[in-house]
């Protein structure tokens, strides 16, 4: 048979074909993940002031923007102290902080795979008949030295895995911020609900005292024979019913106090919040809050980081098609006698390179790519859903505040009218011009309207805190801190 150059190169070409294909596919590897952004309206619908038609602002996450101590806008020292205690001791925050620390440790562990590995080793063995000459004389081998290994990350598998772990840690950091904001908001809302309940309890108890005065007057008139016993029974019924409502409010207050204890990380048995007047200020919301403040929401940021991590893991799965190349080395001493182990003549060393490229894996790598792609699709859908939920939360609170402001004005008029009607009814009843039923009806109407006014006011505080939470911790525009680009525009504008 005639031998030529092609005879020898043909087998090598066949053997190297998978490697060459992998090198070609390397150029098709996943590009560097890009941060997803969302297109936000220039303003929220509830606060729109005739924005330009069809104009949207491309908003990029800005979770690093400072939020500040937003609860201080309520100008309540007790609230400030409660939020500080919740920040320090709340268990949900501590759980989120522990998960963040775990994610950061995992990121460091993953990143360590990209660094050279160096180890110290030593060993001793005694054997017989295991060498090539099948010696029947036992021999001893003692070794000591350093081992070195380093994987060449030619196709980015290790770097993408490291990026994914880092992005997971950043996502956990966003979830920690989200948990902290949630706890702060719940603490503020629970405290404000408790203070509103204190005022409502005081109002109901004042009404009970008014019924007692009416009962004494009714009993005197009954003893004088001016009215029937039925009138006395009616006043007693009304007073007992109102006292029952006061006890119901006491029960609700105890539940809110216990909830505050849990939020601040304390036992309900040792926590006490004494009743006090409701002197908390209601912050004024500026007109025209820009929609770009949503870029500061930590849950939106966490969802974005999850998308980036999923993109990086797609790259890791694709890099599994490429060969792994590792450099190895070792240096030390080897001797059959412990006394001669560290002599210069006993030195030994070795270096090597390892290449690994799976050829048949039953579809394992393809399944890995498909699974990573599916996770990316899910992360993108979750991110979009989180953004839509953020807009919904803000619009809900803005609409509530708008309606509650109008309701507060109307309810104030109702309270004034009911109070005047009670005064007139009381005077006319004492002079015998109207029946007792008219007086009781006037008192019930005043109590109902006063309690409704307190509930509307409480709802305004709750919606204000809810809006702050929905906006990510305030309503200042994070883009204000950035330098405006040429032309005076503060953000990129894109068509709808």
TrEMBL record:
Record has Transmembrane as a keyword: yes
Sections of the chain in a coiled coil: 437-464
Keyword annotations: Coiled coil, Lipoprotein, Membrane, Palmitate, Signal, Transmembrane, Transmembrane beta strand
Source organism (scientific name): Variovorax soli
Protein family: Belongs to the outer membrane factor (OMF) (TC 1.B.17) family.
Subcellular location: Cell membrane
InterPro entries: MdtP/NodT-like, OMP_efflux
Protein's name according to its UniProt entry: Multidrug efflux system outer membrane protein
Topology versus the membrane: Lipid-anchor
SUPFAM superfamilies xref list: Outer membrane efflux proteins (OEP)
PANTHER family, per the entry: BLR4455 PROTEIN, OUTER MEMBRANE CATION EFFLUX PROTEIN
Pfam families: OEP
Region (Disordered): 115-136
Extent of the signal sequence: 1-31
């Amino acid at each position: 048979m005639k031998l030529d150059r092609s005879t020898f190169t043909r087998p090598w070409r066949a053997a190297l074909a998978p490697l060459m294909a992998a090198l070609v596919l390397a150029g098709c590897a996943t590009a560097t993940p890009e941060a997803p952004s969302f297109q936000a309206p220039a303003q929220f619908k509830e606060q729109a002031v005739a924005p330009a038609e069809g104009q949207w602002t491309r908003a990029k996450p800005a979770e690093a923007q400072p939020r500040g101590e937003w609860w201080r806008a309520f100008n309540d020292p007790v609230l400030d102290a409660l939020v500080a205690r919740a920040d320090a001791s709340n268990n949900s925050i501590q759980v989120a902080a522990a998960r963040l620390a775990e994610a950061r440790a995992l990121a460091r562990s993953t990143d360590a795979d990209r660094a050279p590995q160096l180890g110290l080793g030593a060993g001793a063995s005694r054997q017989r008949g295991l060498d090539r000459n099948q010696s029947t004389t036992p021999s001893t081998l003692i070794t000591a030295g350093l081992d070195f290994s380093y994987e060449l990350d030619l196709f980015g598998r290790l770097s993408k895995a490291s990026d994914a772990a880092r992005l997971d840690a950043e996502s956990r950091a966003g979830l920690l911020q989200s948990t902290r904001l949630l706890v702060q908001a719940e603490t503020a809302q629970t405290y404000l609900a408790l203070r509103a309940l204190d005022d409502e309890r005081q109002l109901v108890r004042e009404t009970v005292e008014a019924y007692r005065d009416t009962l004494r007057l009714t009993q005197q008139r009954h003893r004088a024979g001016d009215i029937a016993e039925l009138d006395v029974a009616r006043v007693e019924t009304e007073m007992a019913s109102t006292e029952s409502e006061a006890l119901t409010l006491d029960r609700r207050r105890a539940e809110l106090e216990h909830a505050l204890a849990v939020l601040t990380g304390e036992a309900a048995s040792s926590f006490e919040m004494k009743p006090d007047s409701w002197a908390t200020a209601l912050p004024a919301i500026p007109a025209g809050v820009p929609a770009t403040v949503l870029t500061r929401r930590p849950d939106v940021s966490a969802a974005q980081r999850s998308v980036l991590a999923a993109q990086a893991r797609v790259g890791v799965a694709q890099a599994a098609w490429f060969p792994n190349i590792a450099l190895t080395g070792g240096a030390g001493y080897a001797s059959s006698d412990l006394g001669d182990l560290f002599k210069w003549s006993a030195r030994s060393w070795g270096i090597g390179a390892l290449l690994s490229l799976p050829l048949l894996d039953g579809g394992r790598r393809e399944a890995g790519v498909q699974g990573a792609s599916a996770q990316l699709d899910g992360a993108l859908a979750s991110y979009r859903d989180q953004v839509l939920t953020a807009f919904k939360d803000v619009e809900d609170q803005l609409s509530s505040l708008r309606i509650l402001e109008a309701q507060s004005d109307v309810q104030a008029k109702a309270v004034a009218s009911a109070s005047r009607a009670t005064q007139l009814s009381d005077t006319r009843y004492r002079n015998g011009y109207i029946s007792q039923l008219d007086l009781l009806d006037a008192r019930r109407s005043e109590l109902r309207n006063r309690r409704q006014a307190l509930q509307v006011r409480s709802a305004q505080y709750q919606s204000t805190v809810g809006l702050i939470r929905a906006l990510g911790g305030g309503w200042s525009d994070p883009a204000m801190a950035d330098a405006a680009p040429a032309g005076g525009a503060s953000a990129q504008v894109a068509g709808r």
